[in-house]
Amino acid sequence: MSETPKLLGHEAAWNSWHAAMRSGKMHHAWLLAGKRGLGKASFALSAAAELVAEPGVPQPEPLSHPDIILLQRPPATSDDEKKRDEGKPFNRKRNISVDQIRTMQRRLTTRPTLGPRRAIIIDASDDLEKSAVNALLKSLEEPPQGSFFLLVAHRPGGLLPTVRSRCRQLRFHTLTDMQIEEIVAAREPDVGIETRNAAVEAAQGSPGAALSFVEDELAPIARELRAIMRHGDPDFTRRGALASAIGARPDRERLLASVRLARDICAESARMAPRAYQARLIDTHGALVKLGAEIPYANFDAGLTVVEIGGLLAAASAPKG
């Protein structure tokens, strides 16, 4: 068996997966659980490629493999479908639908193409609408011969117990700052040390978050958010600087990234704050989570959203004196 090179920091997950493959008693459903941005989806694709490979049979890349089914939230509109096909950024629908699950289940009634096994990746199972979860349960309870499920889960506690109980769990842990710095240095060798350090600080153990920080040029935003949290913004000057850092016409993804940064900065402050101050930070964190949940789907004014992000942090800024 040819084993895929291990993702940095996830050797234990690979060891468990390879041991199961060697045993000849591979469980039919796996729950890949851990914080967003740890590489769970990349692991799922690589693991699925190992699972379906047949000796002596040429294998396509995982994303085009006929025996690997990948279910994700689809493009939001026909225009977004065109953007996806052109390799451009696009918006997605809110959920993985029951129709997507049923289409997958119809494929499971046929034989795999290149060998006896087929892998189904759901990225992420957190995104399944309620009826889709119920439909998926039927396949998890009575899996077709040769079908194996890999469910990516950022918040496994939010899944139905009946789903979790049918899966073997692989836990993905956050990485150390040193590991994240190594990944950023390898993937973004031209990035300066100041930006690299800021990316590691913003990552909170997630290499995906660190790489997005660099790719999306979020360092100026993080700097202004931290300034508001530390010093407040009584004359709105820092909120003006934040608006300049985010940009005049930011798209939803840039606003979402800004909210996530503000949320993580708030959480970091709460961990170190005196008890009397923590309640205010916890409330602010909750408001930022709610704002982040609304941005992908609601009609919004980008300028007002930036003001709201800055205002929430300003209201929660460290008390003086």
Automatic annotation (TrEMBL):
GO annotation (BP), single: DNA-templated DNA replication
SUPFAM superfamilies documented for this protein: P-loop containing nucleoside triphosphate hydrolases
Pfam families: DNA_pol3_delta2
Renumbered residue ranges of the record's region Disordered: 56-95
Basic and acidic residues bias locations: 79-89
Record protein name field: DNA polymerase III subunit delta
Organism the protein comes from: Croceicoccus mobilis
